[in-house]
């Protein structure tokens, strides 16, 4: 089967030919930039304290709060912060700010808050700089 012809790297000013969006060098830079900027509070979610508290909370709240309000029974999978903490550790650990949601309800709520539907660039912005 014939292969698609190589095209220039999408990184501004790079003449390298590639079969992907970026050449190897710039793909590493873009991935690194994304990992640094996309989830700045990741360390809180990776802590053993959070993992233990999350499991305890979900075992005490097995049904999705949003679905329950609609009269639907679905298992909760995610501990959601009602008011987004945005790195505020006091708010992050405050159990009164937690609610149990199923994955689809959590994804819908987060997308609305983070500016996905119509308010682009608020949380998931990309900073492509010449290096």
TrEMBL record:
Keywords: Endonuclease, Hydrolase, Nuclease. It comes from the Bacteria. CDD domains: HNHc. Transmembrane segments: none annotated. GO terms for molecular function: endonuclease activity. SMART domains: HNHc (SM00507). Residues 52-107 form the HNH nuclease domain. The keyword Nuclease applies. InterPro entries: HNH, HNH_nuc. Belongs to the HNH nuclease family. This is Putative HNH nuclease YajD. It comes from Clostridium frigoris.
